[in-house]
Amino acid sequence: MESGKVIRERRNDSPWKKYGGYGVTAFLVIVGAVLIIFIFLRFDEFTEVLSKVFKALSPVIIGIVFAYLMNPLMNVFENAMKRVFYKHARKITRAKKMCRVLSLILTMVILISFISVIIYMLIPELTDTVMGTETTEGLVDILPKQSENLKEWLQDVLNRDSKISEFAREAFEKAANYLEDFVNNRFIHYTSDILSYIASGVWSVFGIVYDIVIGIVFSIYILLSKETFAGHAKKIVFSLFKRRRANAIVRITKQCHGKFTGAITGKIVDSIIIGVLCFIGMMVMDIPYRLLVSVIIAVTNVIPFFGPYIGGVPTAFLILCADPVKALYFVIFIIVLQQFDCNFLDPKIVGGSIGLSPFWVLFSCVVFGALFGLPGMLLGVPGMACVYMIVKETTEYRLKRRGLRTDTDYYIDADSVDEQEMVLVDPKLEPVKFTPDEYEKKIHEEEIINDEPDEENDEHESDESEEHKKK
Fold first, then answer.
1. Where are the domains of the chain?
2. Which of 110-124, 128-142, 192-206, 439-453 has the lowest mean pLDDT?
3. What is the distance between the alpha carbons of residues 307 and 322, in angstroms, rounded to a whole number?
4. Would you tell me how many other CB atoms lie within 10 Å of the CB of residue 262?
5. How far apart (Å, rounded) are the C-alpha atoms in residues 462 and 467?
6. Which of 11, 294, 360, 400 has the greatest number of C-beta atoms within 10 Å?
7. Cβ neighbours around 363 below 10 Å, total
8. What is the rounded average pLDDT of the residues 5-29?
9. What is the pLDDT at residue 465?
C-alpha cells in the first residue's frame, strides 16, 4: 500500500454484528482459560512441545533476524541506485527490481567480506597470542612461568610461622587430596559422559551451522519481498480490527520498528568506533594483543550496560599475564574510553531512538537477560522502549478522554483530582472546564466528525464506478 493511501470501508451497524462480537469474545475467553489451565497442569509437556516448535522455526527466526539487520544497509544502497536508474529507465518496475537485487547482492558481499577480513586478521593474532612468535612469548610459555611464580610465592607464605600460613597449608593439603581422589576414583566414571557431551556438542555445532545457512536463504527471500509481507500483515490487521484500532496498531508498529532499527544500527556503529579507538589507544601505548582485545571490546560493547565489564575483565586478565604494568594502563584507558562512550558518543549516535532512563535500561538488561540470555540483553532495551512507548501513549490517550492533563510534572505534587468537573487542556489555549456529561458529548461529537467519510471523495468514487459500469 502506498503511503498516504486511504481505504474506505462500508459500515454495518446491525445488531447481529454487535451480539456476534460478544459471542466471539466470550468464546475466546473460555478457550484462553482452558488453555491456561492445561498449561499449568501439563507444564513439562507444554515446554517440550514449545521447544520443538522453536527448534523447527529456528532457521526462519534466524532469517528474520539477518534480514532485519541487513535491511538498513540495503535501503541505503537501494535509494542511491534508484536516483541513478530511474533517470535512464524505460520501465520503472524493471528498474525497481534491478535496484532491489543489486542492493541485496552488494549488502551480502560487504557483510561477508567484513566478516572474512575480521576472521582472517583474528586467526593469526589468536595463534600468536597462544603460541607466541620469535620475538614475543605466548600464553603457552607465559602461563607456566606465572604458575611457577605463584607456586614459589605460596611456598614462601607456607614456610612462614603464622596463622595465615597454617590456614593456607591446611587448605592447600585438602585441595591436593581432593584433586588426587577425583583423578584416581571419579574421573574414570565421568569419561563416558564427557565423550558424550563432546559428541553432542559437535553435533549441535553442525546443527547451528545448518540453521544459519538456511536462515541466510530465508533472509534473501524476505528482503526481496519485504513490501509484500508488510502488505499481508496490514491486510490481516485491517480485516480483524476496526479502522481506528487498526490504524493505531500500524502506527505503533512503525514506531517500534523505528526504535529497534535506530537502537541496533546505532549501537553497531558505536561499537565499531569504540573498537577502532581501542585499537589506536593500545597501539600508542604499545599494549600487547591489541587486535584481539579490540575486537572483543567492540563485540561486547553492543550489550548495553554490562557489555564493557563483560569485555574488559577477561581482556585485562589476558594482558595481566603478559605485562602487569601495561594491564594497569589498559584498565585506566578502558575506563576513560567507556566514560567517553556513555557520556558523549552513544547519545550522539543512538540519540533519542531509545527514550529510556538509566533505570529502565538496567531493568531491561537484568530481567530480559535472566529470561532469554544474551539475546535478551541485546534486544531487551529496544523491546522495553517499545513497551514504555505503548504504555505512555495509552495512558495519555485515556487521560485526554477523561479531560485530564498529560504532563507528568503536574502529578508530582498533586494529591487528588476534582471529581465534579472535567478539565480539557489545550496547549495553545487556556484550560476550559466541562461537566462530565458535556465532556462525553463533546468527545462523541468529535469521534463522529472524524469518522464521517468525505462526501466529495465518495461522489467522485461513485461517478467513477458508474462510468466503469457504462463501459
1. 225-401, 405-453
2. 439-453
3. 24
4. 20
5. 9
6. 294
7. 15
8. 65
9. 46
